[in-house]
Design a protein that fits this description.
2 domains, alpha+beta, about 160 residues, about 60% helix, single chain, about 15% strand
Length: about 160
């Protein structure tokens, strides 16, 4: 009988060890399962935000870029005037003085054709210069002394 008691005790001990190991495994499984749930919730939330942004911004992605209309937007005229100013300043830096006439400045072909189709008056001085440019829809001025750019519709002059 002694052998049967030892055997019963071994079986009971093995069963308890198995239950303890099963409890530990279940606890670890629950712990691991709870971590990805938070990640799953975060992922779902981010996906929802992405879907809302995509849905609201989709028309902007599908439209082709529209260049500003030079007849209604003064920024194109202002940008062209600033490009001429940059070329004049580059000439001054390289030569040490302002050009006597605007034809001394190397102007790119596209900007040169725009200047040829309009009236650009360059008035150099010893320390400064002014530009007075009449474009098809705008009148633009620049004074290098104040560095002020002004662009107005043609009718307002």
């Amino acid at each position: 009988m002694n052998d049967s008691n030892n055997l019963d005790q071994l079986i009971e001990s093995a069963r308890q060890d198995t239950q303890a190991q099963q409890s530990k495994a279940d606890a670890q499984l629950n712990k691991v399962a709870s971590q990805p749930r938070g990640k799953q919730i975060l992922t779902a939330l981010l996906m929802a935000v992405f879907a809302v942004v995509l849905f609201t911004q989709y028309p902007r992605f599908t439209e082709p870029f529209a260049w500003p209309d030079p007849a209604t937007n003064p920024s194109a005229a202002e940008g062209e005037l600033i490009a001429v100013v940059g070329l004049i300043e580059a000439y001054r830096i390289s030569q040490g003085q302002y050009p006597a006439v605007l034809s001394q400045v190397a102007i790119p072909e596209g900007l040169a054709s725009l200047i040829a189709e309009s009236v650009l008056v360059y008035r150099p001085g010893e320390q400064a210069y002014t530009l007075d440019w009449t474009l098809p829809h705008w009148h633009a001025n620049y004074d290098s002394l104040t560095e002020k750019v002004s662009v107005e519709p043609l009718g307002k002059r």
